[in-house]
Amino acid sequence: MSLCALCMAQIDRPGHFPPHARLARRGQVLTAAGYAFAYQCEDCSHAILLAAAHEDAPDRWVLADDIPGTG
Ligand SMILES: [Zn+2]
Fold first, then answer.
1. 18-50 pLDDT, tens per residue?
2. According to the lineage, what is the superkingdom (predicted)?
3. Closest by alpha carbon to 51, among 5, 2, 69, 22?
4. Using an 8 Å Cβ cutoff, are 41 and 5 in contact?
5. What is the Å distance from ligand 1's center to 37 Cα?
6. Residue 58 alpha carbon to ligand 1 centre in Å
7. Which pTM does this prediction carry?
8. Interval between CA 57 and ligand 1 midpoint (Å)
9. Cα–chain-centroid distance for residue 17?
10. 56 C-alpha to center of ligand 1: Å?
11. Average pLDDT, the chain
């Protein structure tokens, strides 16, 4: 299933952008850059992480498939 419109609008936003209404918290996952907050969409079921690309990078909303060490 492709990303729903809410998730499309969420991806690549900075970390201070709030999660959309259909995103449910799924705890934390360990990525190559450290811990990230995991969310899953209740509409399209895609996993989205609030994660940094590397240690010094600011958090961004990313599709879980894009994070090394997950999926
Ligand atoms: Zn979605």
1. 999 999 999 999 888 888 999 999 999 999 999
2. Bacteria
3. 69
4. no
5. 16
6. 23
7. 0.85
8. 25
9. 12
10. 28
11. 90
